[in-house]
Design goal:
The protein contains 2 helices and 10 strands. A hairpin with a 5-residue loop joins β1 and β2 (11-14). The chain has a single domain, classed as HesB-like domain (Hypothetical Protein Aq_1857, Chain: A, Sandwich). It starts with a strand and ends with a strand. It is globular, with a radius of gyration of 14 Å. The chain is α+β, with helices and mostly antiparallel strands. The strands form 2 sheets. A 6-stranded mixed sheet has the order 5-6-3-4-10-9. Strands 1-2-7-8 form a 4-stranded mixed sheet.
């Protein structure tokens, strides 16, 4: 079982998720000073979807979360919906991918890619 690391009062990240982010960066020659931008946007079958992507710079209003050489960028609007969320990574029988365990989501879709608040 992954031990959970509390990197911020806002968002938590598991060791497994941090290791996977580092591996993706290494395999794709993404510079070490880049961060993983996590956020939410309107859409999906439940109203909002999560999005992930690497970004080379902080934007105005971003919250920066650092954990074991992994930097996360979260914009203020997304942080509102992601406060208390745990970012994890699964490589189990149901598929591989990042998982957002979001206590703010009062409904989710079957695929886990969208949520409603």
């Amino acid at each position: 079982m992954n031990s959970l690391q509390d990197v911020s009062s806002d968002i938590k990240i598991t060791e497994k998720a941090a290791a996977q982010i580092k591996q993706i960066m290494a395999e794709n020659d993404i510079p070490n000073d880049y961060g993983l931008r996590i956020g939410v946007k309107g859409g999906g079958c439940s109203g909002m979807t999560y999005h992930l992507g690497f970004d080379g710079e902080q934007k105005d209003g971003d919250t920066i979360i650092n954990y074991e050489d992994v930097k996360l960028f979260v914009d203020g609007k997304s942080l509102f919906y992601l406060t208390g969320t745990e970012l994890d990574y699964s490589d189990g029988l149901n598929g591989k991918g990042f998982i957002f365990n979001n206590p703010n989501a009062n409904k989710t879709c079957g695929c886990g890619e969208s949520f409603g608040v």
